[in-house]
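Record type: ASSEMBLY
Status: queued
Input:
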Amino acid sequence: MKPADSPPEKPLSEGTKGFLSLAIILHLACVLTVLAANFRRSSLLNELTRIFAPYTQSLLLDPDRTSYFLTHGDVLDDDAIFTVELYRSADAPLAGQKPLATVMLPDRGSRWLEGRRRYLALARTVQMNSPLEGEPTDYEGEVTIALAKSVGRSLMEEHQARRAVVRCLRRLSQPRDLSLLDPGFPPDDPRDPAYDVTVLTADIWIDDDGQTQGARRVPRREQAPLRTEAAP
Amino acid sequence: MSSLTATSPLKESWSQSWKRAWENFWFTPADPRPLAVVRVVVGLTALLYLASFSGDLVRWFGPHGLLPPEATAAITGGSPSFRFSVLRLADSPGELWTIHGMCVGAAALLTLGLATRAAAVGTLIAVLSYVHRGIVIGGLLEPVLAMFLLYLCLAPCGAFCSLDRLLGMSVWLRGSERPNVAATISLRLMQIHLAALYAVMGVTKLYGNAWWDGEAVWLLLAQTHSRPIDPTFLRSWAYLLAAWTHLIAYTHLAFAPLVWSRLTRPIVLALATLTWLSLIPVTGQTLFCLFMAASSGIYLPELLAQNTKQAEAC
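Status: finished
Output:
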């Protein structure tokens, strides 16, 4: 079937051109501003990004802090994953229980495809919100425990468990020049556990009301002498 | 007074030439054929992107999924958020699968060019919904894909290579096949936006030492969880890794200024395509790298038009 001929294009009036020009300029001003704020933001860019947010955020014109540089070679650019130990009982002490299963996320998907990358991105969010030194801020603490709870709860549902220990591990990358390796890091195996740094450990459990509870474990060197374990 | 009258025609001609250049750039009617090709590539990418959620749909977004609304609320930190998602309407796995099917269907219709205008809007809403719902699991692809989809919504992208054309659907649904201003504006916005994204990619690389030291490609290959291949055989090829790193960084830096010149455009487009293809085995970001390589094609109509003009002049 042949399509009907399109009507000939009418030349644009000066008023229409003026209106379109204004719309194009405003749109590009918003786009270029949010793109300029991609990596680091001055207070001015921060404010402009906030003002433009209803337009740029809703249409994803603002890539926020998407790392288009791919890597800067910082520790935070290293891969991170979750490992989750699952236990049957929420009430019995961990020492007396054998784990039902230990799951590593990502646990599926091809390294060439999107599905697996999403798990790495989730763990990376925890890594980015876990400061290398000192205590996390309130925001960082809330984000990391919220994600640990959701990861723990999801896997507990899959394995009929009531308690989980969620860990986020950063895998330090091997330098190209192996003579720069510190002692203790095996040069022939970049997957050795020596390369893994725990950035978060959290106890997650399902309480009697079916609600998910969680507590971040404080690293041993940061523990106050009389602090008690938060988890049951 | 006499000096004023002497300079005003000069000023006028300068402003008029700018106005003419602006109008030539934005309002010269363009052939919508290239946009049909863009539509097929973007539609196919959106289809693959949305379909990639199928294996883990309920695990991510279902009840007790990996990303429940409480977790995304913690991430946005209570600040005003303009992230609408149709996936938030689903309360059960069944509803989630229904919405997912509609989203994948919209992308399939866009690729085939059936009810093209509506499918373009539907696919944009679908992609935005997944990004806004999955807030922290988005990657490099999504902002570029959403940008192309947005501009396709403005364009007569179903005028050619479409079922709409084959079935003789109305012009309103498929867009006019005559050269038109909507095609020009859409293509120009894609070109400028993509060049700006390249500028961001290039400039942000300058912040870190890895791109200066020539180590960035190695550092990407050294990520044992994300790298798709084992690159240990490249360890001793320091010069190759450095050259590879510099080629990527300088190509991304040079893209935005050089893609507008007819002399440098073919070179910079070829280098950009090469760098994106070379990044696939380094990062495993197959869909993103292929899409970026293909998206260089939006500068080709310009190149073809120049060649035609040159041939006519000869």
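Annotation: The longest helix of chain B spans residues 2-27.
Annotation: Residues 1-7 of chain B have pLDDT under 50 and may be disordered.
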